[in-house]
Amino acid sequence: MTQILIIGGSDAGISAALRAREVDETCQITMVMADAYPNYSICGLPYYLSGEVKDWHALAHRTRDEITSQRITLLTDHEATRLDLTERIVDVRDRAGSIQRVAYDQLVIATGAMPRRPAIDGVDQEGVFFLHSMESSFAFQRFLTTQRPRRVAIVGGGYIGLETAEALTHRGLRVTLLQRGASVLSTVDPTLGASIRATLERHRVTVLPEMPVSAIERHGKRFQVRRGANTIADVDAVLVATGVEPNTTLGRVAGLPLGARGAIVVDERMATVNPGVYAAGDCVVTLHRLLQEPTYLPLGTTAHKQGRVAGENAVGGDLRFAGSVGTQVVRVFETVIARTGLLEREALAAGYAPLTIEITTWDHKAYYPGAQEMVIRLTADRETTRVLGAQMLGAVSGGIAKRIDVVAAGLYAGMTAGELNDLDLSYTPPLGSPWDPLQTAAQAWLHERDAGSSSSLTSPAQLPQ
Ligand SMILES: Cc1cc2nc3c(=O)[nH]c(=O)nc-3n(C[C@H](O)[C@H](O)[C@H](O)COP(=O)(O)OP(=O)(O)OC[C@H]3O[C@@H](n4cnc5c(N)ncnc54)[C@H](O)[C@@H]3O)c2cc1C
After folding, report:
1. C-alpha distances in Å from residue 200, one per residue of 50, 88, 196, 237, 411
2. Counting atoms of ligand 1 from 1, which one is nearest the CA of 12?
3. CA separation for the pair 197, 280 (Å, rounded)
4. How do residues 391-410 score in pLDDT, each as one tens digit?
């Protein structure tokens, strides 16, 4: 009977285990995980902190019983400490410190990522928090409920920083967001970043751009966040959200090659160079479908898919991960921002001839109550007209997430701007327009391309609908 050992019990690890079981009724599956929270939705942590999700148990995608009922042996609070890829044995240490040696035929490494610890003096002290795991959220929650801070500084204006800024504001705290670069959410173009900043400021979040933090100093119960000699925030707690890095110590020490951003190198089958060893999720490189090269794109969506591929292949399958196009959506208060594919500068760097247009239009027929403006930036290649990417910003009711998904599907299929315009998309006045905003953008793009413009078009006026 094949022994499958999976290290990690979050999105990638669980997906691997469940798929292995689906495909192979007979194999033995053991999952070891360093924490006690198998298959919890880490993505839901901001909503637990905000109080919108009252009970953290609700964040479980599946209960422990649902997992073990699939005949998956779960070893929680068991940390893998060493891989012996020659003997096919993994050393696993429990909380009491005892080590057991677990043999495997096929191994799936799904150890995820760790929060990046920036070079800031004082980052490792009590009262400075990270948000990456159930345990880290409990620590922060405990602090919030027992110490009752009033002001919190968040270091980092990426999506986790933004979601947490909203969560803490929702809870009644005053938030200062410190951002190293000029614009929040640097994964989208600065004009859209500026809109997100305006949303944050409408909700009394203080946004301080171009503010690299050098030190966090404790004074009694307060923290002074400093940039050089200047105090830039005087707060009761600090949350650091400056991104993640792949958690690859095990693989690296065992000699597995590392690629983009230090993530484990895998092929489309999620196989490492070592026979019988697969890896998936935030600890591995991800094939970018448009760039056709490995990148590092740590997202839950990707981790689930890669885990499924690894799980199927670990029991003898031949599934391929089709690649990511970098689709992402974030809600910040009443605003939703999403992107897929490449920004213009990324497309240029990849050798495309990109043209980007921007339109502002209504998310549904303007005569029907509740219509809100939405902004679409569409990038396509001037020569082939192939769509390369899109960014969208609009209201929560504006269908932003699903509209970006249409473009993501188009990117997957290699669609041109003309084909995007040809799609048979749904319409009813409360939800859309006969020409969906996406198609309006495609038409604007084609018009601009035919006009031979070399610069991006901004069209603040409503286009005919
Ligand atoms: C606050 C927050 C919000 C997010 N929101 C979104 C979102 O909206 N959309 C989205 O797509 N993504 C989101 N993400 C990202 C998403 O959560 C991750 O991409 C996803 O959890 C990665 O899954 P994973 O299984 O690869 O790794 P992880 O979730 O990092 O899990 C790693 C697992 O490995 C275990 N482990 C690690 N080392 C060892 C070891 N040595 N021995 C045994 N076990 C070990 C851990 O205990 C854990 O079970 C968010 C992340 C955070 C932190």
Report:
1. 15, 51, 6, 19, 31
2. 25
3. 34
4. 999 999 999 999 999 999 99
